[in-house]
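The protein record quoted in full:
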Amino acid sequence: MELRQLGYFVAVAEELNFGRAAKRLLIAGPSLSQQIKALERDLGVQLFVRDRRSVALTPAGAALLPQVRGLLERADELRRRAAQFAGSESVRLGYVNWLPADLSERVAGVARLHLDTWVGPSHTQVARVGEGSLDLAVCGVRTDDLRRYDLRARPLGADRLYAVSTARDGTPIRARDVVVLVDDDDTAWLSWNRFAQEFAADTGATVLRIGDGGITGPAFFDHARVLGRPVLNSPKGQNASLPTDLVRHPVVDPVAVWTWSLVTRADGDRPAVTAAADAICRGVGDLGLTSPGTWLPADDPHRTGP
């Protein structure tokens, strides 16, 4: 058994819902279910009674839950004590627009994390880690960038992109039927432009070049209104509030996925940086990137298979 699996057990026990627990843990639902079954096999007891409508702890699961929580707390204390050897110097973290919701909790007692105030695009943050003005960055990255700057990338999150249109219902839209926006300003939108163009080439989606920065924000919504066709959203707009005259569509055949990585230098680093990186990535687990029907760029560092 693994500490990671024990953490999964606690999350499901607290939520009593595999879907909510998977969302909390940032892993795919089927993967979570498989890990719980593997833990039950290792322990030799059934932890949950589950059917289509409900999840409940078995008597064995309820009895083991306090002990598992105690074990995880002791493991966290061990990590905190070990991290004290890393020193107390500040670790500078850059990002684009997404960070794990529990970032402060992850690094508490491990590192003094300084969030950089310059929120630049992914390719800029990657370059800053490479040249040393950032210790870490949460951003999108490609394999060729990792080679160019001698970096490594750990998977941290994944956004499943959707489409926006003026339709009356949010029915799923095939990838080949969406429009992807590509901005003329590569200085600001290089990472997205590369993603969008490759997605269109692989799926048959339509590329529309724009010059108004309308990849996100009100201008993006205006493009969806004017076109009258579903337009693929970008990860920078993933959590934006949708105007009432527009609807959101799941994109299928395939599902477009943008990955978020924690980028660090590959040639070793200060102990404080290593401790912070380990804490930030602890417990991330399976992000569902190998699920059937999922599309990632060919040189996404977290893509496996052809």
User: Anything to note?
Assistant: Residues 59-83 form the longest helix (25 residues). The radius of gyration is 21 Å. The CA atoms of residues 45 and 60 lie 7 Å apart. The chain has a mean pLDDT of 90.
